[in-house]
Amino acid sequence: MTMTQRELNGHNLPEGERLDVNAGGFLVGPGTEISDDIPAVGCSVFVLNAETVRILGRDRIDKLVDLALGFRTKLMLSNGEYVVPALASVVLFDFWQKINLSGVISRANGWGEVEHEELRQVVDSDIASLEQRVMEGC
Predict the structure, then answer these.
(1) How many whole angstroms separate alpha carbon 138 and alpha carbon 130?
(2) pLDDT digits (tens, 9 = 90+) for 75-124
(3) CA 104/CA 101 separation, integer angstroms
(4) Of 17, 106, 125, 137, which one has the greatest count of Cβ atoms within 10 A?
């Protein structure tokens, strides 16, 4: 397996711009290891501080990320299901849990159109809330 060296360059960002860190990688830019001088935007990313990177080593972290990105789960799927990409499922975990549970409740309790409409309204409200969060920068 060939290891990918990921690097995010935070130098010379135009005024008001933020570095998109969703792809992940080793961050280089202005400031010190604790100064928080690089404006960035990312959604559902996990940041390892510089001391942790120094202790573990960049190569080891790159290898872990490569392995995680290459991980595949064998699935058995059914017609009519919807496969949510990993990033979206992390962001929407609580939302999906609520929706999946409502489907189970619906089948078990014989929900009708009124209850389904109420559920759609809850989902619409959650969508509006998420849209607002995205507009504000995650």
Answers:
(1) 8
(2) 888 888 778 777 776 666 666 666 666 555 555 566 677 767 776 787 78
(3) 5
(4) 106
Q: Are 34 and 50 in contact (CB under 8 A)?
A: yes
Joined tokens for residue 22: 């969703």
- C-alpha distance from residue 13 to each of 34, 49, 138 (Å): 19, 21, 20
Name the pairing type of β-strands 26-28 and 40-41: unpaired
Between CA 89 and CA 68 the distance in angstroms is 16
Residue 38 has pLDDT above 90, yes or no: yes
Q: What is the DSSP letter of 15?
A: T
Residue 135 pLDDT > 60: yes
The token duo for 26 is 């080793």
The radius of gyration of the chain from alpha carbons, rounded to an integer in Å, stands at 20
Q: Answer whether 21's CB lies under 8 Å from 41's CB.
A: yes
- Pairing, β 40-41 against β 19-20: parallel
Are 18 and 81 in contact by the 8 Å Cβ rule? The answer is: no
Cα dihedral across residues 113, 114, 120, 123: positive or negative: negative
Going by C-alpha positions, the residue among 128, 123, 46 that lies closest to residue 87 is 46
